[in-house]
Amino acid sequence: MNGRKKVKFNGKLKSYMQWPLIMTVFLILMDFLVYCIDIKAGLVVSAFTVVYLIIALVLLLHYKPNIMNEMIYFATQYGQVQKKLLEEFDIPYALLDCEGKLIWMNYEFGRIIGKDKAYHKNIQIPFPEIDPGMLPSKRSHNSVEITHNERDYRVQFRKISVEILDKSVDIIEIPEGSSYLIAMYLFDNTDLNECLRENQAQKMTAGLIYLDNYDEALDSVEEVRRSLLVALIDRKITKYISDLDGVVKKLEKDKYFIAIKYKSLKDLEASRFSLLEEVKTVNIGNEMNVTLSIGIGVNGSGYIQNCEFSRIAIEMALGRGGDQAVVKDGENISYYGGKSQQMEKSTRVKARVKAHALREFIGGKEKVVIMGHQVTDIDSFGAAVGVYCAAKMLGKHAHIVLGDINGSIRPWVSLFLDNPDYEKDMFVTHAEAKSIVNNDTVVVVVDTNRPSMTECEQLLHMTKTIVVLDHHRQGSEVIKNAVLSYIEPYASSACEMIAEILQYFSDNVRLKSREADCIYAGIIIDTNNFVTKTGVRTFEAAAFLRRCGADVTRVRKMLRNDMASYKARAEVVRHSEVFRDCYAISVCPPNQALESPTVVGAQAANELLNIIGVKASFVMTEYKGRIYISARAIDEVNVQIIMERMGGGGHLNIAGAQLDGVTLEDARTKLKDTLIKMSEEGAI
Question: How far apart are CA 630 and CA 602, in angstroms?
Answer without folding.
Answer: 5
